[in-house]
UniProtKB/TrEMBL annotation:
Belongs to the concentrative nucleoside transporter (CNT) (TC 2.A.41) family. One of its GO terms (molecular function) is symporter activity. Residues 211-418 form the Concentrative nucleoside transporter C-terminal domain. It comes from Pedobacter caeni. It is a multi-pass membrane protein. Residues 103-201 form the Nucleoside transporter/FeoB GTPase Gate domain. The chain crosses the membrane at residues 6-21, 33-56, 99-120, 177-199, 211-230, 267-290, 361-388, 400-420. Residues 8-80 form the Concentrative nucleoside transporter N-terminal domain. Its main location: membrane. This is Concentrative nucleoside transporter, CNT family. It is found in: Cell membrane.
Length: 421
């Protein structure tokens, strides 16, 4: 019966979504069931079908290769910098397998953004997204705009996914808008996914198949949750059709590479700035909390991790995480939601917050694989608002709902995967 513990998580997640629904009578249960079926199918294929497992293991090795290629570029820039190797001695940065978070992460994000820009320029990315979106549209009977934005979110960043549906943003219903925002928060961009997979590889964790599965499952999962919380009551302009008309904004290949590198650098610097700011702030808050705790008990070290461990314990337990990992998993869930997933993955892969069981690692990896955190909501409102200024008020009103949907969608995927392991 331990295998089916995650069923409790599925029931809890769907119950929370139902509780927050603004129109319970209009919930499309066919959409919910078809979406759950699609999520289960994705998980079964990746976890149980040998040929598919080998394919995703191959993709995982490809991700490690991308980091190696990225390091070739960054070696030239930081080649004279000395780092501390795994043996504790000083060595040049270009020494094979050396790792400095800021340098390696920056290089990987920049290279992936360059590759995405190239694929986008030649129309390859648009064709991949359109094909998968048509399949989701057929299975779940959602609108074309929703399907496109949710599938795109599994490959590109939050705002980039909305660029693909820019022509429809102005006329999208509020339900569609929430579904699109939720998908972007539940999924994770390809470049960031590769960074997390390689962080895991550095620590001897094979996270690549888990993270790819998480991002693919998040697309239908976000639609399920968002359509329970905000059912469709209006007529969509793109219901029943998937039409993607996104022309390259680049003049030529060189222009695409230049823009991709520039955008990648901006993203990487934003990640580094957020980590420095948030981790420093957490240190300040923890120092304050510890001193408050010592007032009542000299042995009580109150901290944010302690608070997260208690607050998110019910979610971690209900998803089927083994008892020995529940408390630490709850801490990672709290860090991911309130700070960002980068901090959660850094603590997971560095074993600062250790997860000791294989099942616990699978479930928590999927549960924290997404952009759903408070700072991302602000980024979405600003980014999508720039694409469709007339929808900024709607975006602001739907922001917190999108955060809830994105979080629950990740938890739903994790619960399903845990049952199938």
């Amino acid at each position: 019966m331990e295998r089916f513990h995650g069923v409790i998580g599925i029931i809890l997640i769907l119950a929370i979504a139902y509780l927050f629904s603004n129109n319970k009578k209009k919930i499309n249960y066919r959409l919910v069931l078809s979406g759950l079926t699609l999520q289960i199918l994705i998980a079964v294929l990746i976890l149980r079908v040998t040929a598919v497992q080998h394919f995703f293991e191959f993709l995982g090795k490809g991700m490690q290769k991308i980091e190696e290629f990225a390091k070739k570029g960054v070696d030239f820039v930081y080649g004279g910098v000395a780092t501390i190797g795994f043996d504790g001695t000083a060595q040049r940065y270009e020494t094979p397998h050396s790792f400095v978070f800021a340098f390696n992460v920056t290089a990987t994000i920049i290279l992936v953004c360059v590759l995405v820009a190239i694929f986008y320029h030649f129309g390859i990315m648009q064709r991949i997204v359109a094909v998968i979106a048509k399949g989701m549209n057929f299975i779940m009977r959602v609108s074309g705009a929703e399907a496109l934005s949710n599938v795109a979110s599994a490959f590109v960043g939050q705002v980039e996914a909305q660029v693909m549906i820019r022509p429809y943003l102005k006329g999208m219903t509020k339900s569609e808008l929430l579904a699109s925002m939720s998908g972007s928060l539940a999924c994770i961009a390809g470049g960031i996914l590769i960074v997390y997979a390689n962080m895991g590889a550095q620590a001897g964790m094979n996270l690549a198949p888990k993270l790819i599965m998480a991002s693919l499952m998040a697309a239908p999962g976000a639609l399920i949750i968002s359509k329970i919380i905000f059912p469709e009551t209006e007529v969509s302009q793109t219901m029943g059709k998937v039409k993607l008309e996104v022309k390259s904004e680049y003049t030529n290949l060189i222009d695409a590479i230049s823009h991709g590198a520039g955008e990648g650098f901006k993203i990487a610097m934003n990640v580094i700035a957020m980590l420095i700011g948030f981790i420093a702030l957490i240190a300040l808050v923890d120092w304050t909390l510890i001193n408050i705790g010592h007032i009542f008990n000299p042995d009580f070290n109150l901290s944010l991790d302690w608070i997260f461990g208690k607050l998110f314990y019910p979610f971690a337990w209900s998803m089927g995480i083994p008892n020995e990992d529940v408390s630490n998993a709850a801490t990672l869930l709290g860090q991911k939601l309130t700070v960002n997933e980068f901090l959660a993955f850094k603590n997971l892969t560095s074993k600062a917050v250790p997860i000791v069981t294989d099942k616990g690692l699978l479930i928590i990896s999927i549960a924290i694989c997404g952009f759903a955190n408070f700072s991302s909501v602000g980024m979405q409102i600003g980014g999508i608002g720039a694409l469709a200024p007339e929808r900024r008020a709607d975006l602001a009103k739907l922001g917190v709902k999108a955060l809830l949907c994105g979080t629950l969608a990740s938890y739903l995927s994790a619960s399903i995967a845990g049952i199938l392991m």
